[in-house]
């Protein structure tokens, strides 16, 4: 159940269309639904503005399917992250309307009804090796109804590529900046724009990159004040952080 459905339920009670006892019975499913080994948090979208997503890595097919089924029943849509290609094929038989993307490893069923126009998020990617994380962020936002402008392969090793897109950067409501290696891209962006910049370090890089730790520390130590930094390879977390900001802007 989302906020709109809850408001409609209360309106039906207020107008005498639905008996209070019947409404109470519907609300018994909140805040979670038990399905097999899974307790699906169907109330999260009301509390946080984004429904529970299924982190499929390490889960069995049955656990993933049970969670997605509960979330689709509750919200009419669902999102699973870090889905292996072989699992996606099996999920497609259970959810034929679902869409799988091999780059982001997201499995999407339906879409949320976001109201974010004319706002949009720029997802800025330092190199094409960072695209899996960038697409996880971009497609999570699109699942939420947010318009995304992708700027790819604009890392600081060729700074002119980034500077050529200044108009795109400055027109965005929020920027998600994704980089591996030394993680310099968000610092540069933080010095060029006034909008919030959410930095995502990736595990891409040579040995001293330490699987993303060098990029993470570089972003945390940025001299561009006010950067928000999420965990290594966490495109999903960056997207939800952006959504929290957008939701506040929508509510005024």
Can you characterise this structure?
With 252 residues, the protein is α/β, with parallel strands linked by helices. The chain has 2 domains: 79 residues, no CATH class; 132 residues, Rossmann fold, CATH 3.40.50.1970. It contains 11 helices and 11 strands. The strands form 3 sheets. Strands 8-7-9-10-11 form a 5-stranded parallel beta sheet. A 4-stranded mixed beta sheet has the order 3-4-6-5, sandwiched between helices.
N-to-C series of helices and strands: HHEEHEHEHEEEHEHHEHEHEH
Q: How would you sum up the global shape?
A: globular
Overall number of domains:
2
**CA radius of gyration:** 20 Å
Query: What oligomeric state is this?
Result: single chain
Strand percent estimate? 15-25%
How would you summarize the topology of this molecule?
Layout: H1 3-14, H2 20-27, E1 33-35, E2 38-40, H3 44-48, E3 54-55, H4 61-75, E4 78-81, H5 85-94, E5 99-101, E6 106-109, E7 120-125, H6 131-143, E8 147-152, H7 159-163, H8 166-171, E9 174-179, H9 185-190, E10 197-201, H10 213-220, E11 228-229, H11 235-251
Parallel strand pairs: 3-4, 7-8, 7-9, 9-10, 10-11
Antiparallel strand pairs: 1-2, 4-6, 5-6
Helix pairs in contact: 6-11
């Amino acid at each position: 159940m989302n906020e709109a459905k809850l408001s409609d339920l209360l309106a039906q009670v207020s107008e005498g269309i639905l008996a209070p006892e019947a409404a109470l019975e519907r609300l018994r499913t909140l805040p979670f639904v038990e399905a097999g080994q899974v307790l699906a948090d169907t109330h999260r979208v009301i509390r946080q503005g984004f429904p529970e997503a299924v982190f499929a890595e390490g889960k069995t097919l049955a656990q993933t399917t049970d969670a997605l089924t509960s979330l689709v029943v509750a919200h009419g849509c669902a999102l699973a992250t870090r889905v292996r290609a072989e699992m996606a094929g099996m999920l497609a038989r259970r959810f034929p309307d679902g869409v799988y993307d091999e780059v982001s490893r997201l499995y999407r069923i339906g879409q949320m009804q976001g109201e974010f126009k004319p706002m949009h998020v720029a997802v800025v990617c330092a190199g094409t090796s960072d695209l899996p994380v960038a697409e996880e962020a971009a497609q999570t936002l699109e699942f939420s109804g947010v318009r995304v402008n992708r700027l790819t392969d604009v890392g600081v090793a060729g700074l002119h590529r980034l500077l050529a897109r200044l108009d795109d950067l400055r027109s965005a409501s929020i920027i998600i900046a994704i980089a591996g290696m030394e993680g310099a891209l968000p610092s540069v962006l933080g010095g060029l724009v006034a909008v919030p910049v959410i930095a995502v370090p990736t595990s891409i890089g040579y040995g001293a990159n330490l699987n993303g730790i060098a990029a993470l520390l570089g972003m945390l130590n940025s001299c561009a004040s006010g950067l928000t930094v999420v965990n290594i390879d966490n495109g999903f977390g960056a997207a939800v952080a952006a959504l929290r900001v957008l939701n506040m802007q929508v509510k005024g």
